[in-house]
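re: that chain from earlier
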Amino acid sequence: MPAPQISVCMAAYNGGRYIEEQLRSILDQLGPDDEVVVVDDASRDDTAAVVEGFEDARVRLVRSPANRGYVRTFEAALGAARGSYVFLADQDDVWRPGRVEAMCAALDGRAVVATNLATLGSGETLVGPFGQPDWHLRAADSDRPLRNVLGILAGNRPYYGCAMAVRRDALKLVLPFPEFLVESHDLWLALAGNLSHSMRHLELRSIERRLHGENQTPNRPRGPLAVLRSRLLLLRAIAVLTARRRRLRRAAL
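^ sequence. v structure.
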């Protein structure tokens, strides 16, 4: 089979109610040789059966023998991807037309691209953690890596994995995920892009996010201890990514 230009990596778990609509919105934007890698994290519902029911050779199902959590499931999906442009996808959103074309164009010059998102059935804006009525990434901040990294540490940058994509060569930096990365794979990718000075923000709202009680990203503020643990994790992530970048640069000399 020809190598795909685009790989879409989806982590799935008990998503049988929503995954068909999401897969159709993705496949409508892909070429005949592209792929969607769905890693099912030992779902207890009919998620895997729904995916298998697609009569489309572009959909590739990988079954996990045991539940590993969404971070390891996304890691497995990224590791299985074969495309030049690698997109992340949640199982329960809906992609808007034009998303793939716009993000691939942005990746021609950058390692990581992130867009904004809307809320399915509830409007165009997201309320921010500090009460911002329209919390979104700004294109003008693409080339402000220090500001973006500080914003990530402050919990004030809306980087969502479902709204992100990476160039294949960036996988050398982001994979494997460190063992301590038990949450925030999206912020790991965002840190990789910003620390490499190769991040692009698109103000496009490219997906409609479905809000329900099973979303992995919490909608309510976290307690102070959870926030402290999260910030320590991000600081460790910065240290690991910085060391990896140095090793990759030395290896390229």
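The first helix runs from residue 19 to 27.
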